[in-house]
Design goal:
The structure holds two protein chains of two kinds. By secondary structure, chain A is mainly beta. In chain A, about 0% of the residues lie in helices and about 55% in strands. Chain A contains no helices and twelve strands. In chain A, strands 2, 5, 6, 10, 11 and 12 form a six-stranded mixed β-sheet that branches. Chain A has a four-stranded antiparallel β-sheet with strand order 3-9-8-7, with no helix packed on it. Chain A starts with a strand and ends with a strand. Chain B has no helices and eleven strands. Chain B is about 0% helix and about 45% strand. At the A-B interface, strand 5, strand 6, strand 10 and strand 11 of A face strand 4, strand 5, strand 9 and strand 10 of B.
Chain lengths: ~110, ~120
């Protein structure tokens, strides 16, 4: 069965420093993986998706993620954090052809000035 | 606007009341999903529609939960005899493809349901 585990419930960084949000997945076959961001009082927004093309995926707002099959990981990174990046981030796997999404528990990113 | 809209944005219900939550997907989107997000948790799948057909309702927590999409566009999630454990944010998402596994789902802002 497909599942994702986000290894940190809360990450705090200083503005201008790198961001690393960790995610491991479990899947019986090549998965479709996503990162979504949720700002307070706003809808979930897709940051990036992996669908078995290039293993390094670039998304919006300078985020990227690398699919590593050997490590079953799909960590999200950004070279330099902005204050506006403070939000809840979800690692997500798609299940089956219908595409219903299985969400991780979320990581709260705090960005300090 | 062009996005997914949901109404009401906030709903307070007394335990035992019935509620109806509405979702207006992006025009022309074939696939429609409902998710439930409890406080401090990630969203959990409830049900899936392809046009007017409800193809997957495996996530509905009990027979008090019912969803419909009679004309293949607007969808309603109904909860009968609400309980305190139903308190959550209910999210609707739509996708343009019939098989949405490779595609982005566009989410609405959610309806926050509080059951007293």
């Amino acid at each position: 069965a497909q599942s994702v585990t986000q290894l940190d419930s809360h990450v705090s960084v200083s503005e201008g420093t790198p961001v690393l949000l960790r995610c491991n997945y479990s899947s019986s076959y090549s998965p479709s993986l996503f990162w979504y961001v949720q700002h307070p009082n706003k809808g979930l927004q897709l940051l990036l998706k992996y669908t078995s093309a290039a293993t390094l995926v670039k998304g919006i707002n300078g985020f990227e993620a690398e699919f590593k099959k050997s490590e079953t990981s799909f960590h999200l990174t950004k070279p330099s954090a902005h204050m506006s990046d403070a939000a809840e981030y979800f690692c997500v796997v798609s299940k089956g052809n219908t595409g219903k999404l299985i969400f991780g528990q979320g990581t709260t990113l705090q960005v300090k000035p | 606007g062009a996005g997914v809209s949901q109404s009401p944005r906030y709903k307070v219900a007394k335990r035992g009341q019935d509620v109806a939550l509405r979702c207006d997907p992006i025009s022309g989107h074939v696939s429609l999903f409902w998710y439930q997000q409890a406080l401090g948790q990630g969203p959990e799948f409830l049900t899936y529609f392809q046009n007017e057909a409800q193809l997957d309702k495996s996530g509905l927590p009990s027979d008090r939960f019912f969803a419909e999409r009679p004309e293949g566009s607007v969808s309603t999630l109904k909860i009968q005899r609400t309980q305190q454990e139903d308190s959550a944010v209910y999210l609707c998402a739509s996708s343009s493809r019939r098989l949405a596994n490779l595609d982005e789902q566009f989410f609405g802002p959610g309806t926050r349901l509080t059951v007293l």
